[in-house]
Every structure is written in C-alpha cells, then in structure tokens.
Amino acid sequence: MKISNIEVFKVSIPVKGDYRMATGVHTALESLVIRLISDDGIVGIGEAHQGIAGYTYETIDSMYAVAQHTFRPALIGTDLVSIEEFHSRMEFIRIGNPFVKSAFETAAYDLLAKQRGISIAEMLGGPVRNQIQLSGGIGIDTPERLGGKLTELVDKGYKTVKIKIGTNDIHNDIACVIAARKAIGDNVNLRVDCNSGYTTPDAVTVIRGIAECNVEHLEQPVSALNFRGLRKLRSMGVVPILADESAFTVADVMRCIEQDAVDAVKIKITKVGGYINARRIIELCQAADLKVILGQGLCSSIEASAEMQLACAFAQIDSVGEMVGPAKLSGDLTDSPIDLSEGKLILPPGFGMGTTLSEAKLKQYSV
C-alpha cells in the first residue's frame, strides 16, 4: 500500500473563556491536521495541537511548514508497510519536531488499522479496557471561584479533578489547593499541576502548605531540567511528584529514573512524538514501577480519541485519564464529539481511531 497523497491543514477553534496555566493562557486550540490517503482510497487522520509558549518550541506555523514542505514531499509515493518502518523513516527525514511526527504517526496508525479492520488499540496490543474515568480540569483561578467550578465537575460525575497553580503568589496557590479540597470533600481525588512555575525553595513551601490536602500528585513543580529539585521534593515524602515537562523523550524518562526524581510520568501523545515513543516510555515506566498518566488538557475529539486508543491498550496507564480538552472548546472537528458529560470516556467503536473528521467543521475552522 502506497501513500498517494497527504493533506495538511491548520485549524483554530476558540476556547470557552480562556484556559490559564503558569506559562500562559490558551484562548484557542491551534492544531495541525494531517490526512494520509492510500492508493486504494483509505484515509487516515491525525492531529497535534500547538503547545503553549514555554512548553515546546513548535508553533502552529512551524508545524505546518515542516509538515507541508519537509514530510509531505518525502512521504508521498512511499510504501506504508509497517508503523516501525514509517517511524524510522520520519526520524531519518528530520530530527525533532515530535508534535508534527505525532500527527503523521497517528494518521498512519489510523490508516493501517482501517485497512486491517481493527482499532488502533488492537494494533497496539490491546485493548485491556474499554473505558476510563476522567480527571475534570480547570485552569488557574481564585480560591473563591474554584469551589463552584469544581463542584459542577463533581456533580457531573467526575471522581477526580485537577487544578492549575504555579503563580508568583505561592500563598494564594496554597489557598487554592486548600479551597479545592474543601469544595470537593474527601471522596474525590485531587490532582495539582504547577507547569514548572516554581523555584525549588518555593515548591518546598507549597508542598508543606498543602500537606494536609491529600493531593494525589503534584505535577511538574519546578522547571524541566531541574531533576535535582524534583528529587529533593520527592524525598520530602509529602506529595508524590509527577513529571510532565521533564518527560518529553525516552531519554528524559530514563534520566528521571536514574535520578530517582519522580513517582509518576505524564504522557501526551503529541509531546512524545506518537504511539511508538509512547509505548517505549510506558514499558520503561513499567520496569521502574512508575505510574503513567495520559492525556491532553486541551485538544479536539480527534486527538482525545487517539489518546483513548492508547489508554485502552496498556494496563500500565492509569485508569483515570486527562484527555478532557474537547470540553473546553466552543467547537470541534467531528460531527459526533466524544461524550465527557459523566466523567468517563468509552473507547470509540469502529476501525482505526474510531472518530471521523467532519469536512464541514474542517472547512469552518481552517485558517
């Protein structure tokens, strides 16, 4: 089977309000959409969104340029024999650009799975489950407003919620965590994400301030390369430490393990560069007995479905995912958005990714 054509799109979908984190604000989902078309007419789709400033060097414009002018001409006309071969070919064409590669690799998986009449989860060796619980997430906010927003999520059925902190006002951040725990009670899990917002001393203060809040884990309290700080915070034994910005590559995760720096690792299919790198990280974490959390805080139903296939393929991935991005958007790229209303997500039926790109929505949101 040959790749006869590749279509590349930039899309922009407004966010409901805004989505604030320590490194900036999302006002829209800016995404790269890839369509791989085989010589026998099968279409595979993939998507990767632009990370916020400070999270990745890739922007929507750089992603589009690399996809359109580097990968597209190099891949059209090539045989799609296996994903491993496709992955190796992309690595040879260009070093880096994991977000772009993720979109292409997702599309290749979608295409091959459709041709074989199976789901991507089956191609990955699963499924080990057919549904997961979700962590309802909100951005940086005030202690006064947090309570009402979290209560709404709990009322919808979310048994785990996540809040963002990591500002210059660490005492207000502590107050936010305390307010969150008070609002949701003791029977709902609380995750806290700092997005690299603190120095190590400030992170120590925050951890001591939230010690009684029964936080499931503190995500990326210090900068990505501060493995020494992560190790110090973990050694306090107060709150489990989860790496996100410190865990982009297999080598990053290996360093986390060697430094004994974290208790868990956060995977996003985009940042690691696709399913194959995700699988390698998952297997490494399994060997090191590290928990694996999966999911994008901001994404369309296309990207969320792609991650859902991964979540259902590996038992090592935590059964509470974070692919709740579609709930934050004012639109979507499919006519049948995934249903997040009850705090859980069911593996989409059908072959490949199980989600269909809407031509009308693609036209509406293309830029």
Characterization of this structure:
With 367 residues, the protein is α/β, with parallel strands linked by helices. The chain folds into two domains: 3-121 and 360-365, Enolase-like, N-terminal domain (Enolase-like, domain 1), CATH 3.30.390; 122-353, Enolase-like C-terminal domain (TIM Barrel, Alpha-Beta Barrel), CATH 3.20.20.120. It has 13 helices and twelve strands. It has helices at 60-75, 83-93, 98-116, 120-123, 143-156, 170-184, 200-209, 227-235, 250-258, 269-272, 275-288, 301-311, 359-365, and strands spanning 3-21, 24-38, 43-49, 131-138, 160-164, 189-193, 215-219, 241-243, 264-267, 291-294, 320-321, 344-346. The strands form two sheets. Strands 4, 5, 6, 7, 8, 9, 10, 11 and 12 form a nine-stranded mixed sheet that branches. A three-stranded antiparallel sheet has the order 1-2-3. Helix 8 links the parallel strand 7 and strand 8. Helix 5 (143-156) runs parallel beside helix 6. The chain is globular. The mean pLDDT is 95.
Describe the protein's topology.
Elements (H helix, E strand, L loop, with lengths): L2 E19 L2 E15 L4 E7 L10 H16 L7 H11 L4 H19 L3 H4 L7 E8 L4 H14 L3 E5 L5 H15 L4 E5 L6 H10 L5 E5 L7 H9 L5 E3 L6 H9 L5 E4 L1 H4 L2 H14 L2 E4 L6 H11 L8 E2 L22 E3 L12 H7 L2
Helix pairs in contact: 1-3, 2-3, 5-6, 6-7, 7-8, 9-11
